[in-house]
User: Fold these one by one.
Assistant:
Number 1:
Amino acid sequence: MSNGIHIQTQGLSKNFGPVVALKDLNLVVRKGSVFGYLGPNGAGKTTTVRILSGLLKPTAGNATVCGYNVHTERNAIKSVTGLLPESPGLYSKLSAVEFLEFIGALNNLSGESLHRRIDSLLGILGLEGRQNDLLESYSSGMKQKVLVASTVLHEPALVFLDEPTSRLDPAASVLVKEIILAMAKETDTTFFICTHMTDFAEDVCEVIGILNQGILTTLGAPNEIIEQMGGRDLEDAYLKIVGGEIDRETLLSWRQ
């Protein structure tokens, strides 16, 4: 973890046969920062996260995560990072407490310290009254809260979040936002967040990278990107970059 850098990539690339999912990614993410990764579906965001979290080997290039090499030290990367994928799994026949105890055991946590963390996280997330109910009885938003708790339970140095506010109502989204900001500030936890929610990214992220067709096309602070693109907000700037601006006249042309 040298020089206060948690992620550093050089020419990182991934091909799936003839399909180029990620091409020549050069990126630096500093310790304790909140980095936002935006891009259309299929742009290569999840592929990037899978490589950086030790789940997938790159085709070319190199990267270090918390000082560990993605080619040779993938198990070490997994031990110091947390990952909330876009479509995670839950054991529906366990209660929230039992599920978090299981996640704790996978990370060599047990006893009083583990239960203090579990109680604290469930309290923060407003689940203390339902902690012993089976997860199959939870709403999708409640399940997402438990998954957020499981991702940060072992106090990882770096957390990867893939669409962390999906299935959450606005109040719960704000809560997740506050948890991210508090952990980044108080514990120097680094967050790497893939999201389609430009308003969420604008509020939370210090630096944003925009990926399009496997290529990092834009990198900077939200206000810099907005100013550079002459946008009203980050959503407007993002649409200008990825070519998704809406022509309302064309949209309603069917009525003519």
Number 2:
Amino acid sequence: MLLALLATGCVAPRLAPVDLAAPGWRVQETQAVWCPRAGAPELLGELLVATHPDGRRLVQFSKQNLPLVTAQANSGGWTLSSSLRKGRFGGKGRPTARVPWFQLAELPPAAPKEKSGWRLTESAIGWRLAHSGTGEYLEGAGP
């Protein structure tokens, strides 16, 4: 799904760089497993979700400190970039619901909006956010 979205060639707005050391940022991290589509290999990495009271959000999935996916949103737009695919993509307004990264505003994630295709399940050891149509999923540790 990520690769399909990135292949659409959306023009990404320029969002200001994020300084997580600045006041107001709430940063949460966990180990995570991402499977980009049904049948694809799973990728194990670290998931960072950072939010600011003014509505800015940064989500990053990385492996050994190499960001594989970075998603950023604010009131004016959103961007998505990946070292797995060239380019940076995005749009104005609300972020796309087609990728899991914009479903995360906290850890564990809140239930996704109805009709988004995403479903959240929780257990004693973690959570799983899965898309019913593509087979893509993101799993994280912790309550």
Number 3:
Amino acid sequence: MNKNWLFTSLILFALAILLGAFGAHGLKLLVNSSDLAVFEVAVRYQFYAAFFLMGYSWVESSETLNKPLVPAFFFLGWFLFSGSLYGIVACHALGLNAVFLGPITPLGGVLMVFSVLWLVVVLGKLRQK
């Protein structure tokens, strides 16, 4: 088991719970319903990232699966995806223009998909052995 990725996943879980509670109770006083929906998507994908990284930390215990870039790319993808969405909502709450963050979101999504597919390929190769 990779304890670093397990620890990271648990931190992401805790932060997702805290941010979700903030979104449900405090944020709705600061932003409109559209921004609140964007924030909820960011929290949801943070949960997905936590689940992925937790699962990876268990799968990696196989000696033949030593692909540290898979979770690193996934984490970066989550950071860009959810981070840009959090940033957009924060900018709107502060009355700032967040147009520069828009192109970052899909890049993060692509990195997450790439990481998952990369892991599928790696596990497929292991299965054939």
